[in-house]
């Protein structure tokens, strides 16, 4: 990088775009652009934009319009605020024919003179650090806006004064150097006005107000009513800052008191509403309990009715079973009686059969006797016959 910078032999051959973040924590950003060959400061601007790239682009286009062209190359540090400027440089150089045209016209780099910008911002940094240490700056947006209201235009005047002195000394030095080395070739690249107008659509011009518009009008009204002078240097700006901050603290305290009262009233209302809600909930719970009790009573009555019905059903079933048992007993008795009758009939039948058999036996016996008698008679007849013979 150092060797490349040593080869820069002509003005506007390379611009270096840098930013100083020493005052960023207090709501102020500073952007710087220098020509590497002549070390001339092309712009040094203090803004309240928190690194908005569209505001930085506006500074670049103002400078291009003022000097009539853009650099052959642009060196930018890798940061968000330089994004629009890098793309704009590429756009403006898109139709050129040299070896650094188009995208080659932008190169990355580092801050070359950060120590110089830090030295420039040191008085303001010390002043703001003292305010923080004494409790007059907390880092909130309200304090940052108040810093911008009181100090921003004073800081810008200080930077412009510094740039004027620095560039005058550099100009005298460059005149002496050109006498020794001979005239250098200006590498400024011409650009079309319509291209610049196209690029301005993406930029944001510096606003009328150094801080939030509403706060600016409010603080300006307080300053006028109290007869406080417009700050012209660091000390008068610090005095105005402390006056306005005391007013703001008083207003904030009153607002906090009002807020506390409102919060207490709201809490009271909330408590009353909660109590009413609790009462309503208790009443609802009581109603629910009564309904549940009634429901339980109904359920118990229903269960009692069911039990009674079940008991009646059981009694009916028992009676039916008793009837069935009696019928079965009667049936059994009838069957026994029938069996007894059958047995008697069988016994009578057996007796009849026995009697019949006895009669038969007697008849047979009589028959046998008759036969025997007949045989006896036959024998006797034969005997008589034999005797007769």
Can you offer a commentary on this structure?
It contains 8 helices and 5 strands, in the order H-E-E-E-H-E-H-E-H-H-H-H-H. It is elongated, with a radius of gyration of 65 Å. A 5-stranded mixed beta sheet has the order 3-2-1-4-5, with helices on both faces. The protein is α/β, with parallel strands linked by helices. It has helices at residues 2-6, 53-67, 83-92, 114-133, 141-181, 193-200, 213-226, 234-388, and strands at residues 15-20, 29-35, 41-47, 74-76, 106-108.
Describe the structure using short key phrases.
389 residues; alpha/beta; single chain; five-stranded mixed β-sheet; 8 helices; Nucleotidyltransferase, domain 5; 5 strands
Topology of helices and strands:
Layout: H1 2-6, E1 15-20, E2 29-35, E3 41-47, H2 53-67, E4 74-76, H3 83-92, E5 106-108, H4 114-133, H5 141-181, H6 193-200, H7 213-226, H8 234-388
Parallel strand pairs: 1-4, 4-5
Antiparallel strand pairs: 1-2, 2-3
Helix pairs in contact: 2-3, 2-6, 5-8
Output the CATH topology of one domain.
Nucleotidyltransferase, domain 5
Structural class: alpha/beta
Largest sheet data: 5 strands, mixed
Helix content: 55-70%
Order of helices and strands: HEEEHEHEHHHHH
**Spatial extent as radius of gyration:** 65 Å
Percent of residues in beta strands: 5-15%
Low-confidence stretches: none
Question: What's the number of extended β-strand segments?
Answer: 5
- What is the CA–CA distance across the termini? 197 Å
CATH class of one domain: Alpha Beta
- CATH second-level architecture of one domain: 2-Layer Sandwich
Q: What is the strand arrangement across the widest sheet?
A: 3-2-1-4-5
Tertiary shape:
elongated
Please tally the helical runs, counting DSSP H or I stretches of 4 or more residues: 8
Mean pLDDT: 81
């Amino acid at each position: 990088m150092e060797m490349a910078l040593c080869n820069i032999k002509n003005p506007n051959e390379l611009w270096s775009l840098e930013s100083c973040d020493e005052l960023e924590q207090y709501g102020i950003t500073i952007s710087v652009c220098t020509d590497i060959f002549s070390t001339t400061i092309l712009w040094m601007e203090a803004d309240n934009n928190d690194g908005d790239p569209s505001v930085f682009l506006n500074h670049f286009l103002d400078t291009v319009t003022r000097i009539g062209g853009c650099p052959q190359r642009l060196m930018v540090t890798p940061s968000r605020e330089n994004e629009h400027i890098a793309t704009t440089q590429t756009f403006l150089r898109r139709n050129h024919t040299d070896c650094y045209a188009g995208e080659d016209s932008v190169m990355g780099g580092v801050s070359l003179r950060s120590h110089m910008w830090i030295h420039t911002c040191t008085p303001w940094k010390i002043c703001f650090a003292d305010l923080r240490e004494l409790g007059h700056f907390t880092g909130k947006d309200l304090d940052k806006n108040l810093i911008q209201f009181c100090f921003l235009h004073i800081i810008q005047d200080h930077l412009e004064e510094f740039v004027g002195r620095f560039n005058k000394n550099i100009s005298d030095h460059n005149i002496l150097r050109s006498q020794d080395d001979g005239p250098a070739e200006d590498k400024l690249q011409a650009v079309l006005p319509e291209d610049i107008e196209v690029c301005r659509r993406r930029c944001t011009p510096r606003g009328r107000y150094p801080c939030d518009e509403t706060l600016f009008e409010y603080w300006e009204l307080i300053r006028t009513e109290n007869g406080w002078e417009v700050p012209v240097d660091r000390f008068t700006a610090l005095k105005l800052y402390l006056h306005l901050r005391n007013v703001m603290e008083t207003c904030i305290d009153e607002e906090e008191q009002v807020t506390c009262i409102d919060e207490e009233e709201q809490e009271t209302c909330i408590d009353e509403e909660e109590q009413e809600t609790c009462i309503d909930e208790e009443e609802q719970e009581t109603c629910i309990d009564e309904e549940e009790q009634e429901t339980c009573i109904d359920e118990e009555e229903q269960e009692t009715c069911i039990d009674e019905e079940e008991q009646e059903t059981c009694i009916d079933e028992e009676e039916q079973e008793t009837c069935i048992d009696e019928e079965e007993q009667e049936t059994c008795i009838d069957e026994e009686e029938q069996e007894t009758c059958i047995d008697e009939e069988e016994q009578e039948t057996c007796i009849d059969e026995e009697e019949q058999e006895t009669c038969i036996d007697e008849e047979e016996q009589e028959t046998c006797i008759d036969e025997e008698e007949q045989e006896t008679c036959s024998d006797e007849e034969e005997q008589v016959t034999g005797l007769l013979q």
